[in-house]
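Final report, closing paragraph on structural work. Over the funding period we assembled a curated collection of sequence-structure pairs, and we close with a single example.
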Amino acid sequence: MSSDAPGQPLPLAAPAGEKKKRHRRTKAELEAERKKAAGDAPPVDNANEIKEATAALSVTFQALGAILSAKRGEHWKLKQDECDALGAAWANVLAPYLSKFGQSVPIVGALVVTWSVAQPRIEADQARKRLRASLDNVPEVVPAPSLVP
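Its predicted structure, as stored:
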């Protein structure tokens, strides 16, 4: 049976005597791929972009710390110097890519801050709704008859 014939199903596996060899990349090919990938993200020369990203990321980490501390305890609340250090570290990591998504960094920060403000209120509403539902299911208490005339 030939796999070239029209209407014939393709074999699911290679015939028993044939082994398909994988193409292994050479060191030169791997190095060329790394250089190409590094070339895709040009370095950012604009220190102002890095400074803005640092500030936006710092606010983002502060909001994340607030969210985590509300859920997991006060030990998760980040200090300002910790937020600044995290923002600077991540801005340097993301620096080669800022030209591609630099405009979205402040937007993401704003979304995180908005969520950190809204989320506790949403959770409080849900808790109130659960409390009301549980109170609606409480059977009505019938007063006991008076034993004293």
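The first helix runs from residue 27 to 40. The two ends are 104 Å apart (CA to CA). We thank the funder for supporting this effort.
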